[in-house]
Write a structure and sequence with these properties.
Blueprint lengths: L1 H12 L15 H23 L5 E7 L2 E3 L2 E4 L4 E6 L7 E3 L6 E2 L8 E5 L4 E7 L6 E6 L1
Parallel strand pairs: 1-4, 3-9
Antiparallel strand pairs: 1-2, 4-7, 5-6, 5-8, 8-9
Bound molecules: copper (II) ion.
Length: 139
């Protein structure tokens, strides 16, 4: 897959293009160079996607002093991203043994993430609003 991308990319950069464009010596040379850059960008984006395909980003919203969803299932390597759709500051933490963290104050509109490095189940709470609870299960 990656070799195929690289071979197509080399073709594009060498002026071979994808067969539908004039040579780089034409008055359209600039446009042709642009095609090569777009091909390079696409190949890099695809390579990055392939490299990170196994890790998911799970988004947990904080709105009306509550987490949505209130439970999440994840795998080791996934990230958990918390948004703050409230007008108040939140402060997520976990006191579950072996999974402790404290993200500190999170202003309205701010996003914060953690990477899940360990299997297990832990509780996330807000230090400012004790009624907020989230259960995360990591496998
Ligand atoms: Cu809060």
């Amino acid at each position: 897959m990656l070799l195929w991308i690289l071979s197509r990319l080399r073709l594009a950069l060498n002026g071979g293009g994808f067969g539908a464009y004039p040579s780089a010596n034409d008055k359209d040379g600039k446009e042709h160079a642009m095609v090569g850059k777009i091909a390079l960008g696409g190949a890099v984006a695809l390579a990055l996607t392939v490299g990170t395909a196994w890790a998911a980003d799970i988004v947990v919203e904080q709105q009306n002093k509550a987490f949505t969803p209130t439970s999440a299932a994840a795998q080791v390597g996934d990230t958990l991203t918390f948004t703050n759709g409230d007008l108040y500051t939140h402060n997520m933490f976990s006191g579950t043994l072996g999974h402790e963290f404290n993200l500190g104050g999170q202003s309205p509109g701010e996003k914060k993430s953690i990477t899940l490095t360990k299997a297990g189940t832990f509780e996330v709470e807000c230090q400012i609003h004790p009624r907020m609870h989230l259960t995360v299960t990591v496998k």
